[in-house]
Amino acid sequence: MTSARTVVPVLLSLAAGAALVGAGPAAGAERPAVRESTCALGNLKVSAGEPDVGAGQLYVPLRFTNTGDRPCTLLGYPGVSVLNGSRQQIGRPADRDGQVPAAVSLAPGRSATATLHTTNGPIGGPCLPKGEFLKVYPPASRDAVLLNAPFQVCSNRFTVSPVSPATA
Fold this sequence. Notes:
By secondary structure, the protein is mostly beta strands. 11% of the residues lie in helices and 37% in strands. The strands form three sheets. Strands 2, 3, 4, 8, 10, 13 and 14 form a seven-stranded mixed sheet that branches. The protein has a four-stranded antiparallel sheet with strand order 7-6-11-12, with no helix packed on it. The protein has a three-stranded mixed sheet with strand order 1-5-9, with no helix packed on it.
């Protein structure tokens, strides 16, 4: 024997299910765009650009170029450490500079950049030993690339910006 207490919830469930089935796109309607995947290290070329020195500051751009055959997305901050010739870390990894990250869509062959920052000498503290390599983790990656890029952290200042679209 069924009671109103069991029939009403069943009817409500059936009505909700029918509403969900009917809520899909109409025949012939456009399908949602396929979401781009996160850029994997295997489809990225990572390089360090020329240092920009001025007013006691040193900025080095890191470039992430999509070498794959599909668009991909980068979002956030890369992880960066300075290593000596024996590939041992010197000091702490770069701190995030506090900017709000935004997703960067990279078509094949296109690039995004992030910027490393330190001082150009001991302005507010000593300099650490000069490193020979930068160990760079692209945003959202657990895999790193080792760049032959001399870098010296000074004045206890070592930050990295989030990736942003590359300018020419």
